[in-house]
């Protein structure tokens, strides 16, 4: 770990969508998950975060999407900066400004991209140069899934078994160009509620109260091995049913949590049913739905089925629009003055609307 004088740095990082969900913490102090998870880092959507340490400041200044942050979001950033300060041996406060080119807290995982970008920018600004593995280990203290957003393409966050967490880390399984035909059609639903309970708290309610949490843990090692292997072989017909099975298992432990966790709207549920209808009509799995703790639905498919599926989802009442995404790069340092734009994009606000329908 190299050190230099504290200064400023800017990082961008992608959101990711989990094919195998992280849902349950086995050690809160060390931020260790119960189970390993697998995700795809997405292209075009980005959080971009600049951190500048300034010894003259009396407190951290945090701005998210152009507005001063307060309450929980500010506290989370300050707590994260404290961790970086103690690693770097500095007490300087920082100015942090972060923006997303997609809606915050909408089920598009802005906490993953946000904390991955913050981990990169804050450590570099503090004069530290960490390996990607160490950055992932740090990022998980902001948000577990952020550890995966350090890497591009297909990523596994290994839960490990040790009490000290030494065998818990995220790593790249396959790079962003591994499966060029694969697409993620993101179906944005109207009126998606913003999260009432933070994922970190919601998942612990599941651990404590869902009668099916144990069963899910027993199923996961086998499912993870099969999903890893199907991705490796670029075998959509093997992968897609497994992805839906995993999503159903995640939704089931959420629904059986007390009080019940229900992230979907009637429109989201109609999209899940639509995927099943399309698969039945095609006589084989051409799409796989999944969702996180939010109402938007991600549908994995192959390039040749994209138009058909987008048309079909566009007919579902309550669907706002769809985006066509691919696997993309991981976190990276960018020039301080670079504007945040979706690829081929125009203004920031229009970034996430690029290539959208409806
Ligand atoms: O990283 P967190 O604390 O926001 O939790 C993420 C939980 C899910 O998005 C539902 C699953 C996952 O693995 O990304």
How are the elements arranged and paired?
Elements: E1 2-3, E2 8-13, E3 16-20, E4 25-27, E5 32-33, E6 37-41, E7 47-54, E8 61-64, E9 67-68, H1 71-88, E10 93-100, H2 110-125, E11 128-129, H3 132-139, H4 146-149, E12 154-158, E13 169-174, E14 182-189, H5 199-209, H6 213-232, H7 236-255, H8 266-282, E15 287-290, E16 297-302, H9 306-314, E17 319-325, E18 332-334, H10 348-351
Parallel strand pairs: 8-10
Antiparallel strand pairs: 1-11, 2-7, 2-18, 3-6, 4-5, 6-12, 7-10, 8-9, 12-13, 14-16, 14-17, 15-16
Helix pairs in contact: 1-2, 2-3, 6-7
Bound molecules: (3R)-3-hydroxy-3-methyl-5-(phosphonooxy)pentanoic acid.
The appropriate CATH architecture of the largest domain is 2-Layer Sandwich
List the ligand species.
(3R)-3-hydroxy-3-methyl-5-(phosphonooxy)pentanoic acid
**Poorly predicted residue ranges:** 342-358
Strand tally is 18
What is the approximate shape?
Answer: globular
Written account of the structure:
This protein has 358 residues and is of the alpha+beta class. It folds into two domains: 2-176, Ribosomal Protein S5, domain 2; 182-325, GHMP kinase, C-terminal domain (Alpha-Beta Plaits), CATH 3.30.70.890. It contains ten helices and 18 strands. Strands 9-8-10-7-2-18 form a six-stranded mixed β-sheet, covered by helices on one side. Strands 3-6-12-13 form a four-stranded antiparallel β-sheet, sandwiched between helices. Helix 1 runs parallel beside helix 2 (110-125), helix 2 packs across helix 3 (132-139) and helix 6 (213-232) packs antiparallel against helix 7. It is globular and about 65 Å long. It starts with a strand and ends in a 7-residue tail after the last helix. (3R)-3-hydroxy-3-methyl-5-(phosphonooxy)pentanoic acid is lined by residues 18, 21-23, 37, 111-112, 143-145, 199-200, 292-293.
């Amino acid at each position: 770990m190299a050190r230099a004088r504290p200064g400023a740095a800017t990082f961008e990082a992608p959101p990711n969508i989990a094919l195998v969900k992280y849902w349950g913490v086995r050690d809160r102090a060390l931020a260790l998950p119960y189970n390993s998870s697998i995700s795809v880092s997405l292209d075009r959507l980005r959080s971009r975060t600049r951190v500048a340490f300034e010894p003259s400041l009396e407190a951290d200044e945090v701005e998210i999407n152009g507005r001063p942050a307060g309450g929980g979001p500010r506290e989370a950033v300050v707590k994260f900066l404290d961790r970086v300060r103690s690693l770097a041996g500095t007490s300087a406060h920082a100015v942090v400004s972060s923006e997303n080119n997609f809606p915050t807290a909408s089920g598009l995982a802005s906490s993953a991209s946000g904390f991955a970008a913050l981990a990169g920018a804050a450590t570099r600004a503090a004069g530290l140069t960490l390996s990607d593995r160490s950055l992932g280990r740090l990022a998980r203290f902001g948000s577990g899934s952020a550890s995966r957003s350090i890497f591009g393409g297909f990523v596994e966050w290994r839960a490990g078994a040790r009490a000290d967490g030494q065998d818990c880390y995220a790593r790249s399984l396959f790079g962003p160009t591994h499966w060029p035909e694969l697409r993620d059609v993101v179906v944005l639903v109207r009126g998606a509620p913003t999260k009432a309970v933070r994922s970190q708290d919601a998942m612990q309610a599941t651990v404590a109260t869902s009668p099916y949490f144990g069963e899910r843990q027993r199923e996961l090692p086998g499912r993870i091995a099969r999903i890893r292997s199907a991705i490796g072989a670029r075998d959509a017909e093997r992968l897609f049913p497994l992805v839906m099975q995993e999503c159903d298992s995640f939704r089931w432990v959420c629904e059986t949590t007390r009080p019940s966790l229900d992230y979907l709207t009637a429109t989201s549920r109609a999209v899940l049913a639509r995927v099943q209808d399309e698969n039945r009509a095609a006589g084989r799995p051409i799409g796989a739905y999944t969702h996180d703790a939010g109402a938007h639905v991600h549908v994995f498919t192959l390039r040749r089925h994209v138009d058909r599926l987008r048309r079909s989802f566009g007919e579902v009442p309550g669907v706002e629009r769809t985006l066509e995404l691919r696997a993309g790069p991981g976190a990276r340092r960018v020039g301080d003055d670079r504007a945040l734009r979706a690829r081929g994009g125009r203004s920031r606000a229009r970034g996430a609307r690029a290539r959208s329908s409806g």
